[in-house]
Specification:
By secondary structure, this protein is of the alpha/beta class. It has a domain of about 130 residues. About 25% of the residues lie in helices and about 20% in strands. The chain is built from five helices and eight strands; from the N terminus they run H-H-E-E-E-H-E-E-H-E-H-E-E. The strands form two sheets. It has a six-stranded mixed β-sheet with strand order 4-1-5-6-7-8, sandwiched between helices. A two-stranded antiparallel sheet has the order 2-3. It is globular. The two termini are about 25 Å apart.
């Protein structure tokens, strides 16, 4: 996202500045601490572990991690307590990136086995979405794990736009991934589309 080798639209850059302010000030629904804090990752603790184990991966980049709460707090899964999510995933090599959060705003300087990106793509302006997804593939050695919401959010940006700027059906995302995949033949895509009824549909 802050990669100097690519160029995103003015809408993307302007929207990023808005997100920086939302991270600092919060929204009408949540305090700053809880705004885009990475809470949605909890729905995918197990699927991500399955992919890590399946691909024999031991490093990840969480691209668009928000405030990355589960990387810094104790969690309980199946009545077992873990220091944080990487403890459950059994990995030590992880990198957190989010240009909207100062502490995580440095773009990754090296690849990881896997790149995870949960509930981020739908926040990207439509004209930038494909380039954004390609960036995820470029940073991966083995896999990308992407979760995309396919419905409008409850939140709106201060300028009135819905925070979900790029809303497409699961079939539309499936075609986009299918078109991107030949450029990165060694990378396995695991893509989940979330519907308004909180159903999760695998598209790859």
């Amino acid at each position: 996202m802050n990669n100097k080798n690519i160029s995103f639209s003015k809408e993307y850059q302007d929207t990023l500045e808005i997100y920086k302010q939302l991270h600092l000030n919060g929204t009408e629904f949540e305090s700053a601490k809880n705004t885009f804090d990475g809470k949605s990752l909890k729905f995918f603790f197990h699927p991500i572990k399955q992919v890590l184990d399946l691909t024999k991966s031991d490093s990840i980049i969480d691209f668009g991690c928000g405030k990355a709460k589960y990387y810094f707090e104790e969690i309980n899964i199946n009545n077992n307590t873990y220091n944080n999510i990487t403890n459950f995933w059994n990995i030590n090599d992880f990198y957190l990136y989010d240009p909207g959060v100062k502490n995580f705003s440095k773009y990754p300087t090296r690849k990881a086995d896997g790149v995870i990106c949960t509930d981020v793509v739908e926040h990207i302006p439509e004209s930038d979405a494909i380039s954004f997804i390609e960036e995820l593939f470029k940073l991966a050695n083995k896999f990308v794990f992407i979760v995309i919401a396919c419905y409008p959010a409850k939140k709106t940006l201060p300028d009135g736009r819905n925070v979900h700027l790029c809303i497409k059906s699961a079939n539309e995302w499936k075609k986009i991934i299918k078109d991107i995949r030949p450029k990165f033949s060694s990378i396995s895509p695991y893509v989940i589309c979330a519907t308004k009824r909180k159903q999760f549909i695998a598209v790859s």
